[in-house]
Amino acid sequence: MLEELCTCSDTYAKYSHLINPYSENSESERSLSQLQVSILTPVINRFGAENFKLTYGFCSKDLLKFLNREKSRIYIKVDQHMAAERNNKGNYYCKHLGAACDFQIVGVESTKVISFLKTLNFDSIYYYGEHKPIHVSYSQTPRRKVWEFTAQNTPRPYGN
Protein backbone atom coordinates (compact mmCIF):
# COMPACT_ATOMS: atom_id res chain seq x y z
CA MET A 1 0.00 0.00 0.00
CA LEU A 2 2.94 2.40 0.66
CA GLU A 3 3.86 2.38 -3.02
CA GLU A 4 0.26 3.10 -4.01
CA LEU A 5 0.06 5.96 -1.49
CA CYS A 6 3.12 7.49 -3.17
CA THR A 7 2.13 6.95 -6.80
CA CYS A 8 -1.67 7.24 -7.01
CA SER A 9 -2.10 10.87 -8.08
CA ASP A 10 -2.93 11.93 -11.63
CA THR A 11 -0.01 14.35 -11.56
CA TYR A 12 2.41 11.55 -10.68
CA ALA A 13 0.99 9.40 -13.49
CA LYS A 14 1.50 12.26 -15.95
CA TYR A 15 5.12 13.00 -14.93
CA SER A 16 6.23 9.72 -13.35
CA HIS A 17 9.44 9.61 -15.35
CA LEU A 18 10.50 12.93 -13.73
CA ILE A 19 9.31 12.42 -10.15
CA ASN A 20 10.72 10.58 -7.17
CA PRO A 21 7.43 9.90 -5.34
CA TYR A 22 8.95 8.59 -2.11
CA SER A 23 9.70 10.14 1.23
CA GLU A 24 13.11 11.46 2.25
CA ASN A 25 12.20 11.13 5.92
CA SER A 26 11.64 7.95 7.95
CA GLU A 27 9.11 9.87 10.09
CA SER A 28 6.96 10.24 6.98
CA GLU A 29 7.15 6.53 6.29
CA ARG A 30 6.03 5.77 9.87
CA SER A 31 3.13 8.21 9.54
CA LEU A 32 2.05 6.68 6.24
CA SER A 33 2.23 3.24 7.80
CA GLN A 34 0.05 4.41 10.70
CA LEU A 35 -2.44 5.92 8.25
CA GLN A 36 -2.64 2.57 6.52
CA VAL A 37 -3.04 0.51 9.70
CA SER A 38 -5.36 2.86 11.60
CA ILE A 39 -7.55 4.17 8.79
CA LEU A 40 -7.16 2.52 5.40
CA THR A 41 -7.10 -1.13 6.45
CA PRO A 42 -10.33 -0.80 8.48
CA VAL A 43 -11.97 1.08 5.58
CA ILE A 44 -10.95 -1.62 3.10
CA ASN A 45 -12.11 -4.35 5.50
CA ARG A 46 -15.49 -2.62 5.88
CA PHE A 47 -16.18 -1.64 2.25
CA GLY A 48 -14.02 -4.10 0.26
CA ALA A 49 -10.76 -3.70 -1.63
CA GLU A 50 -12.62 -3.92 -4.94
CA ASN A 51 -14.51 -0.70 -4.09
CA PHE A 52 -11.59 1.25 -2.62
CA LYS A 53 -10.05 3.85 -4.95
CA LEU A 54 -7.10 5.92 -3.72
CA THR A 55 -6.98 9.25 -5.58
CA TYR A 56 -4.22 11.21 -3.81
CA GLY A 57 -1.75 10.14 -1.18
CA PHE A 58 1.73 11.16 -0.16
CA CYS A 59 3.19 14.30 -1.75
CA SER A 60 6.96 14.11 -2.17
CA LYS A 61 9.07 17.21 -2.75
CA ASP A 62 9.34 16.27 -6.43
CA LEU A 63 5.59 15.83 -6.78
CA LEU A 64 5.03 19.18 -5.06
CA LYS A 65 7.01 20.95 -7.79
CA PHE A 66 4.71 19.57 -10.47
CA LEU A 67 1.54 20.23 -8.46
CA ASN A 68 2.64 23.85 -8.08
CA ARG A 69 3.24 24.11 -11.83
CA GLU A 70 -0.27 22.85 -12.48
CA LYS A 71 -1.70 25.28 -9.90
CA SER A 72 -3.38 22.44 -8.02
CA ARG A 73 -5.68 23.16 -5.10
CA ILE A 74 -3.27 22.02 -2.41
CA TYR A 75 -2.54 23.55 0.95
CA ILE A 76 0.57 21.84 2.23
CA LYS A 77 0.71 23.82 5.47
CA VAL A 78 -2.31 21.97 6.88
CA ASP A 79 -3.39 19.06 4.68
CA GLN A 80 -0.75 16.51 5.83
CA HIS A 81 -0.13 15.00 2.38
CA MET A 82 3.58 15.76 2.86
CA ALA A 83 3.58 13.87 6.18
CA ALA A 84 6.80 14.74 8.05
CA GLU A 85 8.85 16.01 5.12
CA ARG A 86 11.04 19.03 5.80
CA ASN A 87 11.87 22.02 3.64
CA ASN A 88 15.36 23.33 2.90
CA LYS A 89 15.41 25.20 6.22
CA GLY A 90 14.68 22.01 8.15
CA ASN A 91 11.11 22.97 9.01
CA TYR A 92 8.15 20.67 8.47
CA TYR A 93 6.04 21.59 5.45
CA CYS A 94 2.93 20.88 7.50
CA LYS A 95 2.57 21.91 11.13
CA HIS A 96 0.18 19.01 11.79
CA LEU A 97 2.39 15.95 11.79
CA GLY A 98 0.79 12.80 10.49
CA ALA A 99 -0.22 11.65 7.03
CA ALA A 100 -3.21 12.03 4.73
CA CYS A 101 -4.82 10.62 1.63
CA ASP A 102 -7.92 11.11 -0.48
CA PHE A 103 -10.04 8.15 -1.55
CA GLN A 104 -13.45 7.05 -2.73
CA ILE A 105 -15.52 3.98 -2.12
CA VAL A 106 -17.09 3.24 -5.49
CA GLY A 107 -20.85 2.95 -5.27
CA VAL A 108 -21.07 4.23 -1.68
CA GLU A 109 -22.14 7.73 -0.73
CA SER A 110 -19.38 9.74 0.94
CA THR A 111 -21.57 10.52 3.96
CA LYS A 112 -21.81 6.79 4.74
CA VAL A 113 -18.04 6.45 4.52
CA ILE A 114 -17.58 9.46 6.81
CA SER A 115 -19.94 7.89 9.35
CA PHE A 116 -17.61 4.89 9.45
CA LEU A 117 -14.44 7.02 9.52
CA LYS A 118 -15.76 8.83 12.59
CA THR A 119 -15.54 5.52 14.50
CA LEU A 120 -11.78 5.37 13.80
CA ASN A 121 -8.87 7.30 15.28
CA PHE A 122 -8.76 9.94 12.52
CA ASP A 123 -7.23 13.41 12.70
CA SER A 124 -9.19 15.35 10.06
CA ILE A 125 -11.79 14.53 7.43
CA TYR A 126 -12.65 16.79 4.50
CA TYR A 127 -15.98 16.29 2.74
CA TYR A 128 -16.19 17.71 -0.80
CA GLY A 129 -19.49 16.24 -1.92
CA GLU A 130 -21.56 13.08 -1.99
CA HIS A 131 -19.76 11.42 -4.90
CA LYS A 132 -16.32 12.98 -4.55
CA PRO A 133 -13.20 11.63 -2.82
CA ILE A 134 -12.86 12.08 0.93
CA HIS A 135 -9.71 13.46 2.52
CA VAL A 136 -8.69 11.74 5.77
CA SER A 137 -5.62 12.20 7.92
CA TYR A 138 -4.03 10.35 10.81
CA SER A 139 -1.91 11.90 13.56
CA GLN A 140 -0.51 10.79 16.91
CA THR A 141 -2.36 13.80 18.37
CA PRO A 142 -5.72 13.73 16.56
CA ARG A 143 -7.80 16.89 16.33
CA ARG A 144 -10.90 14.87 15.30
CA LYS A 145 -12.23 17.63 13.04
CA VAL A 146 -14.60 17.06 10.13
CA TRP A 147 -14.85 19.83 7.54
CA GLU A 148 -17.22 20.30 4.64
CA PHE A 149 -16.00 22.36 1.70
CA THR A 150 -18.46 24.55 -0.18
CA ALA A 151 -18.56 24.95 -3.97
CA GLN A 152 -16.31 28.00 -3.44
CA ASN A 153 -13.83 25.76 -1.59
CA THR A 154 -14.58 27.40 1.77
CA PRO A 155 -14.36 25.07 4.77
CA ARG A 156 -17.06 24.93 7.43
CA PRO A 157 -17.74 22.40 10.17
CA TYR A 158 -19.35 19.29 8.69
CA GLY A 159 -23.07 18.94 9.17
CA ASN A 160 -23.83 22.66 9.55
| CATH architecture descriptor name | 2-Layer Sandwich
Termini separation: 34 Å
* Count of domains: 1
Strand order of the largest sheet: 1-2-4-3-5-6
Task: Report what the structure shows.
- With 160 residues, the chain is of the alpha+beta class.
- It has one domain: Muramoyl-pentapeptide Carboxypeptidase, domain 2.
- It is built from 5 helices and 6 strands, in the order αααβαβαββββ.
- Strand 3 and strand 4 form a beta hairpin.
- The chain is globular, with a radius of gyration of 15 Å.
Quick tags:
alpha+beta, globular, 6-stranded mixed beta sheet, plasmid, Muramoyl-pentapeptide Carboxypeptidase, domain 2, 6 strands, 160 residues, single chain, Zn_M74/Hedgehog-like
Write the layout of secondary structure elements.
Layout (H helix, E strand, L loop, with lengths): L1 H6 L2 H6 L10 H22 L4 E5 L4 H9 L29 E7 L4 H8 L6 E4 L6 E5 L6 E5 L5 E3 L3
Parallel strand pairs: 3-5
Antiparallel strand pairs: 1-2, 2-4, 3-4, 5-6
